[in-house]
Every structure is written in structure tokens, then in C-alpha cells.
Design goal:
This protein has 210 residues and is mainly alpha-helical. The protein has a domain at 59-169 and 176-192: Orthogonal Bundle (Tetracycline Repressor, domain 2). Helix content is 68%, strand content 0%. It is built from 9 helices and no strands. The protein has helices at residues 7-27, 34-41, 45-51, 55-77, 84-100, 103-112, 118-142, 148-164, 178-191.
């Protein structure tokens, strides 16, 4: 019987995708070579080709993998028994935290999806539409007495406008983590600026009395 792939094989593929995503995010997909990816992974070019046949297959795996995780997150949320506002808050918290470990992949998804072949691009964009539809449904549920349908998607896109570009200014070692930013985004979106609360961990502590 054929032998299955080892765990180290899958771990190596994951590492390659992470390093390639970092290079694509920094330099852009067209300006990144397989030599650069191999060097970043400390692999020979021949070994790199053992895992991925070309640079395009890396792009497809990064973009499709990232958006698939977001779509799975939305699908999972739909199974939870939460009221409308709690559901939307939980969605926002989870997607912000998902971006915490996927900033490079998210930049690739937003900036390099145009380099995908039509069939691959349509598949990735179809999953993006599923994510948007899931959030739009949650937004509409929060506004049961209002004409939700016409505004649900525009409001959702405004929400994503806050979330999608956090990677451009948030620092990994900054005062606010992605876990802290999730509730802030939810407060701002659902209640307005007056409802935003500073997370306890970010509140400056008074110096102890001598």
C-alpha cells in the first residue's frame, strides 16, 4: 500500500506558504521569485519544487486557503445559538482574531487576487461573497425593525472597511492586540464612538504608593 505523507511534510508546506505570503505581501506577487521563496525557507530550489510546482500554485494556495478559513468561520458561527447582536459581536471578534495570524495572507488576498486565472479567481471571489453574505445576514438580523435588506450589504462593507485594513497600521507589539481590537470594532460598529470601551489590559495603571 502507498505510504501516507508525514506530518513534517504538511508542516513544511505550511511554512513555505507563510514565508511566500510574507514575500508577496512585502514585494508583490510579480516581483517575487521562487529563488527568494527557497532562500526564505532555507531550502534548495529543487526541494521547494517538491512541495509546490511553481509560484502560481503558491499564490492559489495562499489566497484560497485564507478565504476558505474565513468562510468556514462564518459557516461555524451560523450553527451557534446566539441572539442577533451577540452573534454579530462574536463574528466580529473571531474574524479580527483570525486576521491576527494571517496579515500577510490577507494582504495577498486583497492585492494579488487579480493575478489568478479566471477559474481560480472566481472560486476565491465566490468564497469571499459567502463571507460577506454571512456578515450581511448577521447585520440585517440586528436591525429587525428597519428596512435591512437595502442597507445590510453597504453596512457590512463599512464594517469590513474597518477590519480589512487593520494590518496596515496595527503593530504586533503595539498597545492593543487583535483580541482587544475585536470588542472595540464591535462597540464602534454597533453603538457608535460613545460606546467604545478601553480594554482592561490597555488601561494605564496608577503607580503604587511608596
Amino acid at each position: 500500500m502507498p505510504r501516507g505523507r508525514s506530518a513534517s511534510y504538511d508542516d513544511q508546506r505550511t511554512l513555505i506558504l507563510e514565508r511566500a505570503a510574507a514575500l508577496f505581501a512585502k514585494h508583490g506577487y510579480p516581483s517575487t521569485s521562487m529563488n527568494q521563496v527557497a532562500q526564505a525557507c532555507e531550502l534548495s530550489k529543487a526541494t521547494l519544487y517538491h512541495y509546490y510546482r511553481d509560484k502560481y500554485s503558491l499564490l492559489v494556495s495562499i489566497a484560497d486557503g485564507h478565504v476558505s478559513r474565513l468562510a468556514a468561520l462564518v459557516d461555524d458561527e451560523a450553527t451557534l445559538a446566539l441572539d442577533s447582536e451577540a452573534r454579530l459581536r462574536h463574528l466580529i471578534h473571531r474574524i479580527v482574531e483570525e486576521y491576527a495570524g494571517a496579515q500577510d495572507a490577507h494582504r495577498v488576498l486583497t492585492e494579488d487576487v487579480r493575478f489568478l486565472e479566471p477559474q481560480d479567481r472566481e472560486r476565491v471571489l465566490g468564497k469571499e461573497r459567502r463571507v460577506v453574505a454571512g456578515f450581511a445576514d448577521a447585520v440585517a438580523q440586528v436591525r429587525p425593525g428597519a428596512p435591512g435588506a437595502p442597507l445590510a450589504k453597504p453596512l457590512t462593507m463599512l464594517l469590513f472597511g474597518m477590519v480589512n485594513w487593520m494590518f496596515t497600521w496595527m503593530k504586533p507589539d503595539g498597545a492593543l492586540s487583535h483580541a482587544a481590537m475585536g470588542p472595540i470594532v464591535a462597540d464602534l460598529f454597533l453603538g457608535g464612538i460613545g460606546k467604545v470601551q478601553l480594554p482592561p489590559a490597555a488601561v494605564p495603571q496608577a503607580a503604587p504608593e511608596p
